[in-house]
Amino acid sequence: MKTFYSPDHLRHAPREEFTAGHATPAVEVPERAERVRARIIERKLGPVLPPRAFDDAPLLRVHNGAFIRFLDRAHADWTTRYGTRAGDAAVPSVWPARGLRTMRDGDIESRLGSYTFDTATPILKGTWQAARSAANVVLSAAEAVKSGEASAFALTRPPGHHASADLYGGYCYLNNVAIAAQWLADQGARPAILDVDYHHGNGTQAIFYDSSEVLFVSIHADPAYAYPHFLGFADERGAGAGEGANLNLPLARKTAWDGYADALHTAITRVRDFGPDVVLISLGLDTYERDPICRLKLTTGDYKRMGTMLKTLGKPTLFVFEGGYNLEALAENTTNVLEAFEDR
Ligand SMILES: [Zn+2]
């Protein structure tokens, strides 16, 4: 399996995030992707290739143009406003909640509040370059699959599935999997996205909610107790032309493989019924039993079982890297899915 990777992700290196009411050490760090890349080479999974450069057109098919310009300029505008006294990270402190106006061309504070939904997703000096390169990585991997590769892995960082058309959050800025799915649809393909990250892919769901072109299926921790809290419930089934093309399978706390496998079987059945000619997997590994921020109970061996089950779909498959924060196990868990899928 070909892996696509860009070292530009190293430019996005958060030191801390603001969650649970205070600053905590960042978990979405460069070492995540570096460890996975090293393990892919050790296990001889296949070549690790640089992306080619794509223009902004595929990004603008899923993201708002003003949002893209905001992300590109946000850190410079923050620095102009505050100099270095606010530190290196642009983080909002006020939001246009109910009854307030949304000021998308206002001060940097109002734009930050308008374009994000949490405080866990800092914009650093190199964030835009990293996120923009991740879009090239996922598009290059999509192009490989479109050109006849049976599978490919986009080692994208920062991740993407929480970002919608005009909102960033959950460590995500551009929605990598959505950009690839829309690009494939625009080439005449019929894509299905299966999101196995611990967290609901609220951004991906929002982008395709009205669409019958792209199926979105997500298995995740129930938002009744887990981030992103405000989306990902079972009654969200799509709208308009997209009615029925969205399936959420929320899981109870501490679900282990048996319960997980039932949901994965349901998800695979729905994907098969949709009749896709390409499958995109939002591959988050934060379902792991010792993930520092999550509460499901999959083991390292379970990721092999996951890869074997995904293979039964028998479709060209694009794996897109999302979450997973246990640095000791992340590379093994990721490559277990990919190797089992390749049946090696
Ligand atoms: Zn996650």
List the helices and strands and how they pair.
Elements: E1 2-4, E2 16-19, E3 22-25, H1 30-42, E4 48-49, H2 57-60, H3 65-82, H4 108-115, H5 127-146, E5 151-154, H6 176-186, E6 191-195, H7 202-208, E7 215-221, E8 246-251, H8 257-274, E9 278-283, H9 300-311, E10 317-321, H10 330-342
Helix pairs in contact: 1-10, 3-4, 5-6, 8-9, 9-10
The chain binds zinc ion.
Describe this structure in words.
This protein has ten helices and ten strands. It has helices at 30-42, 57-60, 65-82, 108-115, 127-146, 176-186, 202-208, 257-274, 300-311, 330-342, and strands at 2-4, 16-19, 22-25, 48-49, 151-154, 191-195, 215-221, 246-251, 278-283, 317-321. The strands form two sheets. It has an eight-stranded parallel sheet with strand order 4-1-5-10-9-6-7-8, with helices on both faces. Helix 5 packs parallel to helix 6 (176-186). The chain is globular and about 55 Å long. The chain starts with a strand and ends with a helix. The model has no long low-confidence stretch (mean pLDDT 96). The structure holds zinc ion. Zinc ion binds next to loops.
Instruction: Note the overall shape.
Output: globular
How many structural units, i.e. domains?
Answer: 1
Termini, distance in Å?
A: 11 Å
Overall SS class: alpha/beta
Task: Looking at this protein, list some descriptive labels.
10 strands; eight-stranded parallel sheet; 36% helix; alpha/beta; Arginase, Chain A; two-stranded antiparallel sheet
Summary?
The chain is α/β, with parallel strands linked by helices and 344 residues long.
